[in-house]
Amino acid sequence: MKMEIIQNEKNTLEFYLLNERHTISNLLKEKLVKNGDVEFCAYKLDHPLEDKSRFILKTNGKNPKKVLEEAIKEIKEELEEFKKAFDKMK
Question: What's residue 90's pLDDT?
Fold first, then answer.
């Protein structure tokens, strides 16, 4: 999956997740919304036939790239735990 930065300012990060529509986008948004440093987070599909989602992330002053990295790390850890639990079921 690739990411394309649209805007990167002090407390705002806008980016596209390329080759992604709702699956990862919704998971990432839900994780970011729960972060206390996030003031606003949303994504949308600019066009129903495009295969990319557009994110807007605004923080209360914390570096939005760091907040995004933390969210991705948490998601990765949760998915690893899920995989371990799934593998035990085999």
Answer: 72
Would you tell me how many other CB atoms lie within 10 Å of the CB of residue 35? Answer: 18
Please give the pLDDT value at position 1. 80
Q: What is the pTM of this model?
A: 0.89
- Which residues in the chain land under pLDDT 70? none
Q: Which two tokens stand for residue 58?
A: 């605004």
CA dist., res. 33 & res. 30, Å (int): 5
| Beta-strand relationship, 38-44 and 12-18 | unpaired
Dist. CA 41–CA 62, nearest whole Å: 14
Decide: residue 76, CB within 10 A, 0-12 exposed, 13-18 middle, 19+ buried: exposed
Other Cβ atoms within 10 Å of 21 Cβ, number: 15
